[in-house]
Amino acid sequence: MAQPKPFPRVFWVALVLELLERLAFYGVYVNLAVYLTTTVGLSDIENGSLLGVFALVRSWVPVGTGALADRIGFRRSLALAFVLYVLAYALLFVSPTRIGAWAAVMGMAIGGAFLKPVVPGTVRRYGPADRQAMGFSLFYASVNAGSVVGKVLTKVVRELVSLRAAMMNAVVACTIGLLVTLGAFREPEATTPPPSESPSVVTKPTAIRDLLVVLAKGELAVFLVLIAGYYLLIEQFYQTFPTYIVRSFGDQAPREYITLINPAAIAVLQVFVARLTQRLSPLWAIAFGVLVGSASMLLMGSVPTLGGACLSFFVFAVAEMIFSPRYYEYVASFAPKGREGMFMGLAIVPAGLGGLAGGVLSGRLVARYLPKDGPRAPLSVWGTYAAIGVVCSVLLAVYAFAIAKRKARTVAAPA
């Protein structure tokens, strides 16, 4: 048998940059809700609103920044992202005020908007065509490896110095990321796109025309709206969980270590799970992954102990391993050659919808069912998220069935 084509150097450099960026991001995000309510002094509802807007901005702006990355080049986009990240994390450290927090969190969102389309766009553009699923699995493993390192470092600094001092971990990581970008990220020379049945759309398009042509068909647009429910669930590990764990078990509860269960499991098991589920079509794998995520939410609320929280994180890790690589693979399949950055930016849009709705909902559920003082009802909080996930999974299954049926009719139609 022929040996598979190797991944190019730029692919591996991109994964290193993703690891550094996720190290910084998750090292801050794991405690951001607690930092904003304790150190900065935001209320539960204000905190939820800020985190919701943060999710929206960092998810919707990449549609434009992804198209810009295709124009200015991935290297420049990465450099700009790391510069914005360094400034934002530094501001979060030096100015723990309402104005400083809003400016810093929005800076984080804009920095992420310039970076997030580029790394999966690099996987799509430069990875071997017959190894796309494996390429996205390796990409997702790097995301979670960075999360593990970032959270461990945060806990060490938080306990030895302070939660505020832990913000400097992110400054250092992003400074290293900037240096790696400038010194090692080099894109191969562009090749001529393959012939297309619609050259007016693929070979000489504007970025906006590419986007509108695909979205006008409706298939991708409906899919992205449905996926927002999944992102509402996953955001709760950062919008709700830190407050839940501190108010239920105290500030000394090992919240960073609990959150490590998810990325550690993914970093170790992602490729294995990808092989187990590779026979599933992307859409059915996605629907199944959302259903598993719903079970994780229900577990968190029905077993309100540290052990229940640990098990919940592991179950959601399984959901992510099933869902995420196939999601990026499915969205990337719509991307015309040379527009990978824009379409990978589009892939992040549902996270904005889910994150905004989740942030607003989280603030209100926490204020009502997880107050600082008085009786708490965690099942009411996590059970609400589980119900949303089940509805989302069912709708995705219906969507998958409809798409399969339409394709079957297309194949059966006479030429």
Account of the protein in words:
With 415 residues, this protein is mostly helical. The protein has a single domain (9-186, 205-412), classed as MFS general substrate transporter like domains (Growth Hormone, Chain: A). It is built from 17 helices and no strands. The chain has helices spanning 9-40, 44-72, 74-94, 98-115, 118-126, 132-160, 167-184, 199-202, 207-216, 219-239, 241-249, 255-276, 282-302, 306-332, 340-346, 349-369, 378-412. The longest helix has 35 residues, at 378-412. The radius of gyration is 21 Å and the shape is globular.
Low-confidence stretches: 191-205
Number of strands: 0
User: Quick one: CATH class?
Assistant: Mainly Alpha
How many discrete structural domains?
A: 1
CATH architecture verdict: Up-down Bundle
Please identify which CATH superfamily we are dealing with.
MFS general substrate transporter like domains
Q: Strand-and-helix sequence, N→C?
A: HHHHHHHHHHHHHHHHH
- Strand residue percentage: under 5%
Alpha-carbon distance between the two ends: 36 Å
- Structural class, please? mainly alpha
Cα shape: globular
| Largest sheet, strands/sense/barrel | none
**Mean of the pLDDT scores?**
86
Q: Mind telling me the C-alpha Rg?
A: 21 Å
Number of alpha- plus pi-helical segments: 17
Classify the helix fraction into a percent range.
over 70%
* CATH fold label: Growth Hormone, Chain: A
